[in-house]
């Protein structure tokens, strides 16, 4: 993990990094404790990183009434660059966050692959900060306007993107491609985006081409009633290609039990995704999907990539 992340984990609880590795089988096998000694790391993992009793991680139904009253966002982010082609923004006062991931194939053509991602997030941020106070933002409209502004400027390359907003007591989203989000409530996954792909490792993407994808036609949109205590993890595919839903749910549950701040949670999630991306002998969502492709040989391991994680706490 990045040095400052390791320091963060040590400051919270020195057992966290080793417990994550032990629970999810990343890294070298730890030596057994001496006779008569307790394995604190194993006990820590067994208590705070245990899988759910029902053994599953399917999104749950949101059928309970949500109490009245105002809600707001608290958030922070963590970015671990590989090629430096992700971008993100957030405004807690307006209740909006977003991430974008520049399409790396443009790099091989001598084009700045980060340009469109940066343009999208800069344009979206500009829309938010120049809006009238109290404006409630529709993620699809915001993403559409950001796309229009970025394309009108003739910005090169292409990008995936996701925007999540809190409007009153409603959490709303819009995304194109494989940048996505997951919503957690009471330690369980409530909602999870599903990547839009033409085929393996080729996501839907926004660009400046006249015949390119348009937000109004392609964006996946939705909403769910929000509740005090909900946690939203927003990220690029550097997160979701390397971390399973079950792993993410267990990490969020651990962080909640330990009283993580959004900063702590974002760094722990991103740090784990980074280690998973470098681990060659275990399965990840990327390797599982890759093996389903015709002509693909057997392989395991993660995908080295930029990793952006934005963690939002919904609070009253």
What can you see in these coordinates?
The chain is of the alpha+beta class. The protein is built from 10 helices and 13 strands. Strand 6 and strand 7 form a beta hairpin. The strands form 3 sheets. Strands 2, 3, 4, 5, 10 and 11 form a 6-stranded antiparallel β-sheet that branches. It has a 5-stranded antiparallel β-sheet with strand order 1-13-12-6-7.
* Overall geometric form: globular
Order of helices and strands: HHHEEEHHEEEEEEEHEEHHHHE
Beta-strand residue percentage: 15-25%
Structural class: alpha+beta
Mean pLDDT: 90
Unreliable spans are: none
Record field, number of beta strands: 13
Alpha carbon gap, first and last residue? 33 Å
Main β-sheet description: 6 strands, antiparallel
Q: What Rg is obtained from the alpha carbons, in whole angstroms? A: 20 Å
Q: What's the total helix number?
A: 10
What is the share of helical residues? 25-40%
Domain PPM-type phosphatase: 70-314
Family: Belongs to the PP2C family.
Cofactor: Mn(2+); Mg(2+)
InterPro entries: PPM-type-like_dom_sf (IPR036457), PPM-type_phosphatase-like_dom (IPR001932), PPTC7 (IPR039123)
Describe the structure in brief:
With 316 residues, the chain is of the alpha+beta class. It is built from ten helices and 13 strands.
Which features does this protein show?
globular; 5-stranded antiparallel β-sheet; 316 residues; alpha+beta; 6-stranded antiparallel β-sheet; 10 helices
Detail the topology: elements first, then pairings:
Layout: H1 3-12, H2 16-24, H3 40-48, E1 72-80, E2 86-91, E3 96-102, H4 115-130, H5 139-152, E4 158-167, E5 170-176, E6 180-185, E7 188-192, E8 197-199, E9 202-203, E10 206-207, H6 215-218, E11 220-225, E12 231-235, H7 237-240, H8 245-257, H9 262-277, H10 285-290, E13 307-315
Antiparallel strand pairs: 1-13, 2-3, 3-4, 4-5, 4-10, 5-11, 6-7, 6-12, 8-9, 12-13
Helix pairs in contact: 1-9, 2-3, 4-5, 8-9
């Amino acid at each position: 993990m990045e040095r400052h992340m390791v320091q963060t984990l040590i400051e919270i609880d020195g057992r966290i990094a080793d417990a994550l590795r032990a629970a999810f089988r990343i890294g070298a096998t730890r030596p057994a404790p001496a006779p008569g000694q307790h394995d604190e790391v194993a006990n820590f993992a067994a208590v705070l990183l245990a899988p759910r009793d029902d053994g599953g991680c399917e999104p749950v139904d949101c059928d309970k009434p949500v109490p009245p009253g105002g809600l707001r966002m608290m958030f922070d982010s963590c970015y671990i660059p590989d090629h430096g082609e992700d971008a993100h923004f957030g405004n807690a006062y307006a209740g909006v966050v977003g991430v974008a991931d520049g399409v790396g194939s443009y790099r091989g053509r001598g084009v700045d692959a980060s340009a469109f991602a940066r343009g999208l997030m800069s344009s979206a941020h500009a829309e938010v900060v120049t809006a009238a106070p109290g404006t409630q933002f529709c993620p699809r409209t915001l993403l559409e306007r950001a796309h229009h502004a970025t394309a009108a400027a003739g910005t090169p390359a292409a990008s995936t993107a996701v925007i999540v907003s809190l409007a009153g007591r409603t959490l709303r989203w819009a995304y194109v491609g494989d940048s996505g989000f997951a919503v957690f409530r009471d330690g369980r996954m409530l909602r999870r985006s599903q990547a839009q792909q033409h085929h393996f490792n080729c996501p839907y993407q926004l660009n400046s081409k006249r015949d390119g994808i348009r937000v109004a036609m392609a964006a996946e949109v939705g909403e769910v009633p929000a509740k005090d205590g909900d946690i939203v993890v927003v990220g690029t595919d550097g997160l979701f290609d390397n971390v399973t839903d079950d792993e993410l749910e267990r990490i969020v549950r651990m962080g909640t039990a330990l009283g993580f701040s959004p900063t702590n949670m974002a760094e722990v999630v991103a740090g784990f995704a980074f280690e998973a991306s470098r681990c060659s002998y275990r399965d990840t969502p990327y390797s599982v999907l890759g093996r389903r492709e015709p002509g693909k040989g057997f392989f395991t391991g993660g995908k080295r990539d930029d990793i952006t994680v934005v963690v939002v706490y919904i609070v009253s």
